[in-house]
Design a protein that fits this description.
This protein is of the alpha/beta class. It is about 40% helix and about 15% strand. Strands 3-2-1-4-5-6-11 form a seven-stranded parallel β-sheet, with helices on both faces. A two-stranded parallel ribbon has the order 7-10. A two-stranded parallel sheet has the order 8-13. About 45% of the residues are buried. Bound molecules: nicotinamide-adenine-dinucleotide and thymidine-5'-diphosphate. Nicotinamide-adenine-dinucleotide binds near residues 84 and 153. Thymidine-5'-diphosphate binds next to helix 6 and strand 8.
């Protein structure tokens, strides 16, 4: 099978590429990523010399390149490429619409033209908006996004749906809860708090810190997408989550405890505008119809993640300083535009 994976130098995409090459050594992966601030080829070091993995630096909104790549007998497209950070979307919404909506549509057009057998859109539970104290998001929950990020992801989902309904393109949409694990950019809650705690800096908790997220270890997200690729029924949406709801304060306190740092480092700061109060996924459909089950509990997953960040201080200090981008520009120079095995 030949996969075109977009956004495969980002957090989940790079974990997915490594996961798939391990699970399916006979598969071929073309990995397309624009290498924005969030894309980092260092994440792919362990697979960079594998002959069945090819990296291409390109923007998913570049129709010519997407057509050229999909003409190479691609079977399945998995679209991770996105602007993904809510706080950035509040400051700069336009790039979110360009990549998450327009970019998705460009990919769909190319997929249609080249008779791709399946298009998997990697979406998020944030498209459903926010929950009150009870209830969970199911695949039938109406879309009600509240941030420019989640609105752009919902826009992407709707255009994917339309290509299925209108043109019969075989698609699946996955909607996963918050991920954590290796290679997550340290602007997101868990790696940000780990890095700040290690530096004995204040940990900025938005508002009262009682907002709830439903956390899933990244490898469990990857295994669910693998199942969707192989068994997902065309046109269907699959929710992915591990029933691990935690308040932000619980997460931050767990990190401080694991690192032996004092809770006095916690500082409450002004809340995020439009801050969703609670996310919670009902994964019953994915579990019963695809036989998916998460392998990592939150208790072990968070310990493994903290251990990973402790063992990879160089990775995240370079990411925070932006040095990784300069390094790769020097290292690869103009070759970044070319394909690399
Ligand atoms: P990320 O920001 O770490 O990675 C995104 C990747 O996409 C980066 O490598 C970036 O360079 C690339 N990219 C951005 N714009 C591009 C463009 N125009 N063309 C090509 N590549 C481009 O994000 P992530 O956390 O790995 O999320 C990946 C996907 O999963 C996103 O679609 C996101 O909406 C979805 N998702 C994320 C979470 C989460 O908790 N992180 C949860 C559910 C769903
Ligand atoms: P984030 O990792 O940005 O993911 P998302 O907003 O997509 O769920 O944030 C997770 C939660 O942590 C969210 O409720 C906002 C909160 N948060 C903070 O309290 N402080 C921070 O510095 C960040 C980045 C997030």
């Amino acid at each position: 099978m030949k996969l075109l994976v977009t956004g495969g130098a980002g957090f989940i995409g790079s974990n997915f590429v490594i996961y798939m090459l391990n699970q399916h050594p006979d598969y071929e992966i073309i990995n397309v990523d624009a290498l924005t601030y969030a894309g980092n080829l260092e994440n792919l070091k362990s697979v960079e010399h594998q002959p069945n993995h090819t990296f291409v630096k390109a923007d998913i909104a570049d129709a010519e390149t997407m057509n050229e790549l999909m003409s190479q007998k691609v079977d399945v497209v998995v679209n991770f490429a996105a602007e993904s950070h809510v706080d950035r979307s509040i400051l700069e919404p336009d790039i979110f619409v360009k990549t998450n909506v327009v970019g998705t549509q460009v990919l769909l057009d190319a997929a249609r033209k080249h008779d791709i057998k399946k298009f998997v859109q990697v979406s998020t539970d944030e498209v459903y908006g926010t929950l009150g104290e009870t209830g969970l998001f199911t695949e039938k929950t109406p879309l009600a996004p509240n941030s420019p990020y989640s609105a752009s992801k919902a826009g992407g989902d709707l255009i994917v749906r339309a290509y299925h309904e209108t043109y019969g393109l075989p698609v699946n949409i996955t909607r996963c809860s918050n991920n954590y694990g290796p290679f997550q950019f340290p602007e997101k809650l868990i790696p940000l708090m780990i890095s700040k705690a290690l530096a004995d800096e204040l940990l900025p908790v938005y508002g009262d810190g009682l907002n709830i997220r439903d956390w899933l270890y990244v490898e469990d997200h990857c295994s669910a997408i693998d199942l969707v690729i192989h068994q997902g029924a065309s046109g269907e949406v699959y929710n992915i989550g591990g029933n691990n709801e935690r308040t932000n304060l619980q997460i931050v306190k767990t990190i401080l405890q694991e690192l032996g740092k004092p809770e006095s480092l916690i500082t409450h700061v002004k809340d995020r505008p439009g801050h969703d109060r609670r996310y919670g996924i009902d994964p019953t459909k994915t579990m019963t119809q695809l036989g998916w089950k998460p392998r990592h509990s939150f208790e072990t997953g968070i310990k493994d993640t903290i251990r990973w960040y402790l063992g990879h201080q160089e990775w995240w200090t370079r990411v925070q300083s932006g040095a990784y981008q300069k390094y790769y520009a020097q290292q690869y120079g103009d070759r970044l535009g070319d394909q690399q095995g």
